[in-house]
Amino acid sequence: MKLTKSFNRSLWAFHFNSGSCNGCEIEIVAAITPRYDPERFGIKLVGSPRHADVLLVTGPVVRKMRDRLERVYQQMADPKVVMCIGACGTSGGPFYDSYNLDGPIDDIIPVDVYVPGCPPRPEAIIHGVVVAQQKLERLEGEKA
Questions:
Q1: pLDDT 10s digits, 13-23
Q2: Closest to 45 measured CA to CA, from 35, 58, 32
């Protein structure tokens, strides 16, 4: 895999919990520990969506988080990629058709990469970030 000029730096990800049960968060934290060490590939979590290339979203979108999710998505610079992590973000999971859900993530913002599982394993999350990085490279190639 060859990085384009604009991505010759680290790939930064911002995590957003839109109503998750915390299972996916535990797996994301496990994925960034020294056991997997994604920073050796330049993947790192950042504290601001304005600095991020990838948005990691977990959980179904509860009504109170919808506006915040849209705001975070709009704060990210283009090109950007959205990763949906876990079954709840993909379909609502066990909370499907609940009264306080505004829907799965792709009903609110466009999703580029899905990482299935309840919760997904750290290897699956890292693989999803690599797929997101390939999509960013493709977007940059089309733009150039």
A1: 999 999 889 99
A2: 32
Of 97, 73, 71, 68, which is closest to residue 84 (Cα–Cα)? 73
Would you state the structure tokens that stand for residue 14, as one six-digit string?
Answer: 């911002």
- HSE-CB at 9 with a 13 A cutoff on CA atoms is 7
Q: Name which of 93, 7, 69 is nearest 43 in CA terms.
A: 7
Residue identified by tokens 């949906």 is 84
Q: Which pTM was predicted?
A: 0.87
**How are beta strands 43-45 and 61-62 bridged, if at all?**
unpaired
SS3 of the chain: helix, strand, coil, percent, to 5: 45, 20, 35
- Each residue of 35-57: b (16+ CB within 10 Å) or e? ebebeeeebebeeebeebbbbbb
Q: What is the pLDDT of residues 86-98, one digit of tens each?
A: 999 898 888 888 8
Residues with Cβ within 8 Å of 90's Cβ and at least 6 positions away in sequence, in order, are 84, 104, 105, 106, 114, 116
Token pair for residue 134?
Answer: 């390939």
As a residue count, the chain comes to 144
